[in-house]
């Protein structure tokens, strides 16, 4: 009876933390989309809202870290429960990093509105951001539903994001070589593309945690590395 | 008597994990230096050794994660001990990221040896890497000695690294504008500079954890942001 009571208190505490993770995930998803939209529409006000959302995201991570530490200290969870808690902490840490990249993207909007737009790149960047946001949504769903298959699907989709990045990298190189006046803008756009690719890596890391949580094994790291093509570009292969 | 026994077992387990953290830190320090050296001396063999060291670094992180999880599950540590364990996990995670950046730098060495060297940049990159390695050494010493003052010193020194990055960013922009044939090489060098700056951010994050561990408070985030100058550059302020 007493055991059951303790278990249910643990579950309730865990549910509170999971609700916080979902809230944090929702804010991060929104930030990714808004950052890309602010860039495409040259909307500085929208960019500013991403920067203030990042404060809320950071606060949620602090709260989740406090709550998980308290949960471990008070309830001394057994192996399985502990694994869930450690997964939650890692997911929160990955979400915080993705939020940082979105903030950084929004920050560059303020710079890029001062410059001549680079043809077509903004919509490509927005498609890339949209793909990452959808992957994040699925990775969080996979966590809640303990769905290793969905998590594996997210991991595989990261290759599409890597390919989008590689295509943009080539495009920016061409722009810069054709018109040196575009170099500064292209450097910023290239950073945004690279940071979006890194968001994808963090989403993949969340999905890997889910696979580990459900199956007890980390998925094999056999996907091609994200910036291989940019190495090929450098070697003159394209 | 029984309590004392439990405490000493906990301390012994923790010491084992701390020895693993120090080993991991040593490997990461070495990788930072070797990666920068391989770049400057165009030494592909040295670059390759950084890539294999990264495997050992990743394995150490896995080991530390397993050992900390086991320690929490077996010993159900009280608040203070738990804080130490969670700090150790965060330090391991930061070290793993720094190792990844060093590996990425080494990987680009293989690409850059195929291109005409960019005057002077390699030694500047090496000085930057050297500064980050010294900061990391001090951050880990601050952890072992529970020295919040040394940790704060590390946090402040990150500004120097940010300044070195900003100077290099300006230099690369100038090179690219003067000679479009240098664009590809400069893009890679710029990535290396940015990744080294990010290594500094991770070292700072370790130092902040130490401050939190010793004082119970996170240091105020009032340092200027790393890429402010590159924003200024873009706005034509330099």
UniProtKB/TrEMBL annotation, chains A, B:
GO biological process, one term: phosphate ion transport
Domain named PhoU: residues: 21-109, 125-210
One Gene Ontology cellular component annotation held by this UniProt entry: cytoplasm
Domain of life per record: Bacteria
Transmembrane feature ranges: none
UniProt keywords, alphabetically: Cytoplasm, Phosphate transport, Transport
InterPro entries: PhoU, PhoU-like_sf, PhoU_dom
Keyword Transport on entry: yes
Pfam families assigned: PhoU
Localization per record: Cytoplasm
Keyword flag Isomerase: no
Similarity comment: Belongs to the PhoU family.
Functional summary from the UniProt entry: Plays a role in the regulation of phosphate uptake.
Subunit composition and interactions: Homodimer.
NCBIfam families associated with the record: phoU_full
UniProt-recorded name of the protein: Phosphate-specific transport system accessory protein PhoU
């Amino acid at each position: 009876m007493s055991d059951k009571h303790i278990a249910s208190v643990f579950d309730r505490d865990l549910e509170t933390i999971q609700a916080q993770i979902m809230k944090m995930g929702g804010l991060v998803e929104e930030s990714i989309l808004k950052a890309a939209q602010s860039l495409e529409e040259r909307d500085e006000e929208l960019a500013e809202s991403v920067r203030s959302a990042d404060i809320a995201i950071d606060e949620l991570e602090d709260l989740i870290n406090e709550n998980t530490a308290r949960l471990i200290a008070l309830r001394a969870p057994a192996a399985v429960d502990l694994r869930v808690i450690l997964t939650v902490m890692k997911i929160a840490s990955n979400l915080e990093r993705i939020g940082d990249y979105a903030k950084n993207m929004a920050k560059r909007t303020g710079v890029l509105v001062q410059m001549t737009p680079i043809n077509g790149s903004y919509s490509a960047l927005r498609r890339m951001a949209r793909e990452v946001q959808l992957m994040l949504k699925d990775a969080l769903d996979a966590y809640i539903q303990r769905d290793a298959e969905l998590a594996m699907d997210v991991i595989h989709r990261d290759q599409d994001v890597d390919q989008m990045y590689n295509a943009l990298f080539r495009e920016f190189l061409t722009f810069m070589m054709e018109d040196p006046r575009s170099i500064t803008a292209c450097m910023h756009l290239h950073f945004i593309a690279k940071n979006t690719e890194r968001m994808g890596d963090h989403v993949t890391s969340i999905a890997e945690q889910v696979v580990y949580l459900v199956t007890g094994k980390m998925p094999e790291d056999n996907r091609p590395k994200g910036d291989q093509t940019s190495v090929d570009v450098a070697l003159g292969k394209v």
